[in-house]
Amino acid sequence: MKISGGWKDYRIIATGDGMKLEKWGDVCLLRPDPQVIWKSSFDLYSYPAINAVYRRSRSGGGGWERRKPFPDEWTVAYNDLAFKIKPMGFKHTGLFPEQAVNWDYMRSLIEERRAASPQDKIKVLNLFAYTGGASVACAKSGAEVTHVDAAKGMVERAGENTRLSGINSGIRYIVDDCAKFVAREIRRGNRYDAIIMDPPSYGRGPGGEMWKIEDNLFDFVTLCSQVLADRPLFVLINSYTTGLQPCVISNILKLTLKQFEGSVEAYEIGLPTDEGIPLPCGNSGIFTGK
């Protein structure tokens, strides 16, 4: 497991009984986490500093119960990056802090390539890009990023995070179905040095296109391999789908990118907690070119 341990504006105070108690800047939230199947060491709901609790509804979904005043949205920082946090439906806040471990690694690869070939532009394609954590990280290190997501609101949030991080150019925003966009890029002859993808377990595109990760991921990565440059820098796959183990991601990368020289690494990602145990937060796999 790789742990994102560099946060100063985020921490997990305690976990248990399907919930995690966390601090986002000055705001304390209690929300569900499906990985937390152990018992808590104390009653998390009684923690005095909680600003809001996400409560699930018996009919599906849920909502936030406010306990203490806090802003509708606020900003947190990770090193030289900044992100807007806003509690939304389905318990989300607009950022996955565990991904910082991948941001750091991708930035190091981009900066190494730029140092070796300062004249070359590094083009990154970020698919299912959500609110742009990876887009902002890569652009901050000098890459030219194409950010693609089917949800217009999430793409707009990515633009806000870009501006908060002091980035004035270098990111192109696309609202589209990711597979359709990649297919058009192949026909156009466009190529990218790196690809990032964070595909959902299930999804539906703007035109009603259905996505199921078990059925579609292999073919999608195969398609994406056709927009890679001759000497790819990296291809990163993130997954929060239960049952999609690191070895599965590793196998997909090895089989779909076997025409390129490089190596593959796959791993769990997680976050530290004040309890001294890591919280597992999904799996990633990365192909790194030579």
Number of strands: 17
The total count of helices amounts to 6
Strand count, sense and barrel status of the largest sheet are: 8 strands, mixed
* CATH architecture label of the largest domain: 3-Layer(aba) Sandwich
Bulk shape: globular
Fraction of residues in β-strands:
25-35%
CATH level-3 fold name of the largest domain: Rossmann fold
Sheet with most strands: strand arrangement: 1-16-17-15-12-9-10-11
Helix content: 10-25%
Spans of at least 5 consecutive residues with low confidence:
none
Radius of gyration from the CA trace?
Answer: 19 Å
The structure class reads alpha/beta
Please tell me the overall pLDDT: 95
Topology of this structure?
Layout: E1 2-3, E2 10-16, E3 19-24, E4 27-32, E5 52-56, E6 62-66, E7 74-78, E8 81-85, H1 100-116, E9 123-127, H2 133-140, E10 144-149, H3 152-164, E11 171-175, H4 178-188, E12 194-197, E13 202-204, E14 210-212, H5 213-224, E15 234-239, H6 246-256, E16 262-272, E17 278-289
Parallel strand pairs: 1-16, 4-5, 9-10, 9-12, 10-11, 12-15
Antiparallel strand pairs: 2-3, 3-4, 5-6, 7-8, 13-14, 15-17, 16-17
3D structure, described in words:
- The chain is α/β, with parallel strands linked by helices.
- It has two domains: 2-91, Golgi alpha-mannosidase II (Immunoglobulin-like, Sandwich), CATH 2.60.40; 97-289, Rossmann fold.
- It is 25% helix and 33% strand.
- It contains six helices and 17 strands.
- It has helices at 100-116, 133-140, 152-164, 178-188, 213-224, 246-256, and strands spanning 2-3, 10-16, 19-24, 27-32, 52-56, 62-66, 74-78, 81-85, 123-127, 144-149, 171-175, 194-197, 202-204, 210-212, 234-239, 262-272, 278-289.
- The strands form four sheets. The chain has an eight-stranded mixed beta sheet with strand order 1-16-17-15-12-9-10-11, with helices on both faces. It has a five-stranded mixed beta sheet with strand order 2-3-4-5-6, with no helix packed on it.
- Helix 1 (100-116) packs parallel to helix 2 (133-140).
- The longest helix is centred in the middle third of the chain and has 17 residues, at 100-116.
- The protein is globular and about 55 Å long.
- The chain starts with a strand and ends with a strand.
- The mean pLDDT is 95.
